[in-house]
Design a protein that fits this description.
Oligomer: single chain
Helix content: 55-70%
Shape: globular
Order of helices and strands: HHHHHHHH
Strand content: under 5%
Distance between the termini: 38 Å
Number of helices: 8
């Protein structure tokens, strides 16, 4: 009996998001922000949760205003809550849903630090640490765990220094 080879169909929206991420990483934040907004308009508030989560996660990085960054990171978390492992499995190389939460909560914690809201930052930092067991023993997992540890040090018993200049590196969902 011949085995059937299953191939994942390329996800055109995820490809387009990836292209905009590369544009952003090349240094064109403003153009990346505009292209992300165009994609967001296509996807819509009720579109595919994987698309919304991924786009919102990276869109947050294109903003200078911490309030705007927070709004996009909250959209990413909301979309992640709608995701299923089956939907993620359709996307080649995707993580399990539970592996998204450490990074999403870490980014929210960093947003709240920037906004001078240490209690909210600590809440999301605890959630990030609590979810970190779902991370693999790879460079992605190591990077997220290291960023959590750095922010924990920053928000230690003395609290934030009041100048929220530090922020962890964004971690890809």
């Amino acid at each position: 009996m011949a085995e059937r080879q299953e191939q994942t169909v390329p996800d055109a929206v995820m490809t387009r998001i990836g292209q905009v991420v590369m544009l952003h990483h090349a240094g064109d934040r403003e153009e990346a922000r505009h292209r992300f907004l165009d994609l967001w308009a296509e996807i819509g508030e009720d579109g595919d949760p994987l698309h919304r989560c991924t786009l919102a996660h990276y869109m947050a990085d294109t903003h200078d205003d911490p309030s705007d960054e927070l709004a996009w990171d909250l959209r990413a978390l909301t979309a992640a809550e709608e995701l299923t492992d089956d939907r993620l499995a359709e996307h080649e190389g995707a993580l399990a849903v539970r592996a998204l939460y450490p990074s999403l909560h870490l980014n929210l914690a960093a947003d709240y630090v920037k906004l001078g809201r240490p209690d909210a930052a600590r809440t999301h930092l605890r959630r990030a640490r609590g979810a970190a067991d779902s991370l693999g023993d790879d460079s992605y997992g190591d990077g997220v765990r290291a960023a959590i540890s750095r922010l924990e040090l920053r928000l230690g018993e003395g609290g934030p220094s009041g100048t929220a200049e530090w922020g962890p590196p964004r971690q890809r969902p």
